[in-house]
Amino acid sequence: MFSRIARPAVGAARSLSTSSQNHAKVAVLGASGGIGQPLSLLLKNSPLVSHLALYDIAHTPGVAADLSHIETRANVTGFIGPDQLDSALKGCEVVVIPAGVPRKPGMTRDDLFNTNATIVATLADACARNCPEAMICIIANPVNSTIPITSEVLKKYGVYNPNRVFGVTTLDIVRANTFVADLKGLDPARVNVPVVGGHAGKTIIPLISQCTPKVEFPQDQLTALTERIQEAGTEVVKAKAGAGRWQFMQVHAAQFCHPLHGILRICAVRRDRMQVFFNTPSARGNGIEKNLGLGKLSAFEEKLVAEAIGELKASIKKGEDFVQKMK
């Protein structure tokens, strides 16, 4: 299941783990796109990155040249086209994949499947061959299917490690924190709402009962709040009329991708008990070190989890079947 963790304390995003690594080579696959470019900028400014490898099917030499002028230690190299993909991934310890087409008004995440599934499978194949031990961070939607696609491709090569494949869906947590803070007049930076499940509609399950600080809502308001969190992505797509991507996604993706963070906001792990990928709180050093579980759920939240399982299983099977049918 996709596995989320609690929001780190202030400053945790800059803390180092006890990993023996000092600096890492990070690849951004889809570096010329609406998420890839600002994400690459943020990673270039990270003191934890020694080499930033930028890959896309167009424009990456220009993006790399632009970022290389920034006065930070990370060396930047641009790679363009399928012939240079393997070179981009050699020696990488972290790979982040924002590649793929964005969602347009009227589209569901599943509508993206046919295009993005092929892209993610191709990139996962290259990762398996060139950096099989790298931590792979998937942004490309539909995440409920692209995580299983990545996992199944890695399995074909015998290099799958469920503790090193991640779904970057931190924005669900951020939205939950913001919406709760707005309703309660709190500082959003001090609100932490765990979000479990997947990354589409009713599979997004905010655990308001576990919010810090403790908050309570009447049932009608709780239901409306939950539904808004679940459909927040659609709200943005409609408001932007399909123009551009989420502006704050890059910030949290960059925090997530810092290779030495001891705390992750969200990650992916297989929970065999339920036979689905599912977001639950987790902690990470050099990969997932501990799955912290769902915690104590309210009756309302237990119902949400039960309702999400079927859709998650279907999305996962869709991704797994796609890989099985690949030549």
UniProtKB/TrEMBL annotation:
<dbReference type="InterPro" id="IPR001252">
    <property type="entry name" value="Malate_DH_AS"/>
</dbReference>
<dbReference type="InterPro" id="IPR036291">
    <property type="entry name" value="NAD(P)-bd_dom_sf"/>
</dbReference>
<keyword id="KW-0816">Tricarboxylic acid cycle</keyword>
<dbReference type="Pfam" id="PF02866">
    <property type="entry name" value="Ldh_1_C"/>
</dbReference>
<dbReference type="GO" id="GO:0030060">
    <property type="term" value="F:L-malate dehydrogenase (NAD+) activity"/>
</dbReference>
<dbReference type="GO" id="GO:0006108">
    <property type="term" value="P:malate metabolic process"/>
</dbReference>
<feature type="domain" description="Lactate/malate dehydrogenase N-terminal">
    <location>
        <begin position="25"/>
        <end position="167"/>
    </location>
</feature>
<dbReference type="InterPro" id="IPR015955">
    <property type="entry name" value="Lactate_DH/Glyco_Ohase_4_C"/>
</dbReference>
<dbReference type="GO" id="GO:0006099">
    <property type="term" value="P:tricarboxylic acid cycle"/>
</dbReference>
<protein>
    <recommendedName>
        <fullName>Malate dehydrogenase</fullName>
        <ecNumber>1.1.1.37</ecNumber>
    </recommendedName>
</protein>
<comment type="similarity">
    <text>Belongs to the LDH/MDH superfamily. MDH type 1 family.</text>
</comment>
<keyword id="KW-0560">Oxidoreductase</keyword>
<feature type="domain" description="Lactate/malate dehydrogenase C-terminal">
    <location>
        <begin position="169"/>
        <end position="323"/>
    </location>
</feature>
<comment type="subunit">
    <text>Homodimer.</text>
</comment>
<dbReference type="InterPro" id="IPR010097">
    <property type="entry name" value="Malate_DH_type1"/>
</dbReference>
<dbReference type="InterPro" id="IPR022383">
    <property type="entry name" value="Lactate/malate_DH_C"/>
</dbReference>
<dbReference type="InterPro" id="IPR001236">
    <property type="entry name" value="Lactate/malate_DH_N"/>
</dbReference>
<dbReference type="GO" id="GO:0005739">
    <property type="term" value="C:mitochondrion"/>
</dbReference>
<keyword id="KW-0520">NAD</keyword>
<dbReference type="Pfam" id="PF00056">
    <property type="entry name" value="Ldh_1_N"/>
</dbReference>
